[in-house]
Structures are given as structure tokens and as C-alpha cells.
Amino acid sequence: MSLPVMETERLVLRALRVKDAEALHPMYSDVDANYYGSHPATVTLDETRVSLEKKVGDTAWRGWAITLKGDDTAIGNVACYEKRQGKVTEIGYMLRRDHWGHGYVTEAVAAMIDLLFAEGQRRIFADTDPDNKPSIAVVERLGFTLEATLRAEWETHIGVRDSLIFGLLEDEWRASRERRNAS
């Protein structure tokens, strides 16, 4: 299945490719940026390439490279996975450190949410580590609601971790969009 290209004011989101490994290696190998993830940072470019091969080859996973308009170099990615039948989708996102602080992740995730609801998704959710304050800020800015804390949910490279589950329904998304546009 080919992914649609999405454009925002400053970004182009296109299908993530294995050949993005070199551009994204600084992100995937960043120990701090991967601290709260389910997998530790990669060490070598080959490890990053293998990670991307697995993701791109997974038919349940859809991932877009985040690029700046006018430059096709990947600076991050957004992704989604339909977790359960009935149109329930989990989202994820990551950005290279040298592009933090510009609102690119929020802009990219908003475009993906628009697409998912246009495709008929019923519910979108994000599973976030309780200590990952930047990720929590992104979903809260986008209008997600904290729905649950799952205690000792994940065993990761940093130990057993809780999960915060943030959810978003289409009517909440529309209301959140209207509030942001009014600001």
C-alpha cells in the first residue's frame, strides 16, 4: 500500500524509506532521544538501517518521513499502527535533536491525525512513558485526553515502566483544531 504525501505549512511528509537511514541515524542513535522508547538507541548505521527495514517491511505499520519543504532529507518520522479492528490506531513520532523546539512534531502529527480521521478511524491513541514530558506536551497540545495509567506495562531497556494512555476522538480533534485556529 502506498502512502499519501502530506503537506503542511512548513513540512512534507512522505513515505519513510530504508535509504533515510543515514539522515535519521543521528536520531535513532541519540541515547537521550531514545531513552523512553521501547528499544535502546542504535549504535551503528547498519543497526539503524536494519531497524528501518523492519519498520518499512511491516504491513501493519505506516510511517512517514518528516522533511522540510524544499529539502527531501528526513529530519524525523511519524507513524501509526492499527492496533485493533474497529478503527483504533496508535501513533508514534520522533525528531532529530537538531530540529527540536520548532513545533515540527506537532505539525506533522496533526497532519497524520487529519488523514487518519479522514480515512474513518474511530479513535487514535498514544502510549507514553510518564516521565517523557516532551511527548506528553505534544499530545496534550493536540487535544488528547489522558485516559489511563497502566502500571508496570512495559519492560524496556531502562526497566519496567508504566504507560500513560492518551486518546483522541474525531469530535475532540475538531474542537481542538477550532481552538488552535482561533488562537
Structure, explained:
There is one protein chain. The protein is of the alpha+beta class and 183 residues long. Helices cover 32% and strands 34% of the residues. Strands 1-2-3-4-5-6-8-7 form an eight-stranded mixed β-sheet, sandwiched between helices. Helix 1 packs across helix 2. The longest helix is centred in the middle third of the chain and has 15 residues. The chain is globular. The protein starts with 5 loop residues before the first strand and ends with a helix. The model has no long low-confidence stretch (mean pLDDT 94).
Q: Approximately how much helix is present in the residues?
A: 25-40%
What are the secondary-structure elements, in order, as H or E? EEHHEEEHEHEEH
Number of strands: 8
* Largest sheet geometry: 8 strands, mixed
Q: What number is the mean pLDDT? A: 94
Gross morphology is globular
Nearest-angstrom radius of gyration?
16 Å
Query: Order of strands in the sheet with the most strands?
Result: 1-2-3-4-5-6-8-7
Q: What is the number of helical segments per DSSP (H or I, 4+ residues)?
A: 5
Unreliable parts = none
Helix/strand/pairing class, anyone?
alpha+beta
Q: N-to-C terminal Cα separation, in Å?
A: 37 Å
| Beta-strand content | 25-35%
What tags apply to this protein structure?
183 residues, globular, alpha+beta, 5 helices
Topology:
Blueprint: E1 6-7, E2 11-15, H1 21-28, H2 45-57, E3 61-68, E4 74-84, E5 88-95, H3 104-118, E6 123-128, H4 133-141, E7 145-156, E8 159-169, H5 170-182
Parallel strand pairs: 5-6
Antiparallel strand pairs: 1-2, 2-3, 3-4, 4-5, 6-8, 7-8
Helix pairs in contact: 1-2
